[in-house]
Amino acid sequence: MADLRTYTIIYVLLLVLGTGKFVFFEFDFAYSIAIGATMLLAVAKIGLIAAYYQHLIEEPRSITYMMATAVFMVFLLTIAAGYSIQ
Q1: pTM of the model as a whole
Q2: What span, in angstroms and rounded, lies between the C-alpha atoms of 24 and 19?
Q3: Coil, strand, or helix at residue 59?
Q4: Same domain assignment for residues 50 and 73
Q5: Total domains in the fold of the chain
Q6: Are residues 4 and 28 both part of a single domain?
Q7: pLDDT at site 1
Q8: Taking 70 as the threshold, does the pLDDT of residue 52 lie above it?
Q9: What is the dihedral of CA 56, 54, 69, 65, to 10 degrees?
Q10: Alpha-carbon Rg of the chain, whole angstroms?
Q11: Residue-wise pLDDT tens digits, 5-21
């Protein structure tokens, strides 16, 4: 189990990554760059949350692979739903 120092560092990183969204949209970045950077920041935040707060970093790799497969399947379903709406 991670100690308090680790959780504090992760919390600060999440705070910085969350502030990054504001920075990209409030300063003079192109809209497509802001969207792409925000998506990258979101993926980094998801990875930190899943690894440390959901304790996947301490689980066997098979469970991590199963979770990654589930997330990928949800991504595919979201794309399919978006395609069928058009």
Answers
A1: 0.71
A2: 9
A3: coil
A4: no
A5: 2
A6: yes
A7: 62
A8: yes
A9: 10
A10: 16
A11: 989 999 999 999 999 88
Rounded Cα distance, 45 and 38, in Å: 10
Position 12: which residue type? V
Residue 63: pLDDT band with limits 50, 70, 90: confident
Query: What CA–CA distance (Å, rounded) separates 77 from 3?
Result: 37
CA 19/CA 51 separation, integer angstroms: 21
25 and 42 co-located in one domain: yes
Amino acid, single-letter form, for residue 65:
Y
Count the neighbouring beta carbons within 10 Å of the beta carbon of residue 67.
14
Q: Per-residue confidence at 3, pLDDT binned at 50, 70, 90?
A: confident
**3-class SS at 57?**
helix
Looking at the structure, tell me whether residues 50 and 71 fall in a common domain.
no
Q: How many C-beta atoms surround the C-beta of residue 52 within 10 A? A: 19
Task: Summarize pLDDT for 28-42 with one digit per residue, the tens.
Answer: 889 889 889 999 999
